Amino acid sequence: MANHKSAIKRIRQTETKRQKNRLQHKTARNAIKKLTDTTSKKEADKLFINVTSLLDKLVKNNIIHKNKSANLKSKLASHVNSLKATKSKAKAKA
Fold it and tell me: Which residues does 29 contact at the CB level (< 8 Å), separation at least 6?
């Protein structure tokens, strides 16, 4: 166990930051999963904006690497672009 007051404080600070980072990272992963499971183009466009924002925040806070963020955003963008617009399907059926 730590012997100095500063070391004890550093342990507390580190644990607090670790918990905050885990929460942010898990939130972003859940948002990515929700986006990849989405089949609606309109909903995916809205989610994509939120997910890219979350990823940028993770990079800014050094939780994930900037290249990992770029790779994830690229993969998600191609997924969103591959989705068909629901309106075009409705018009095709009519």
Answer: none
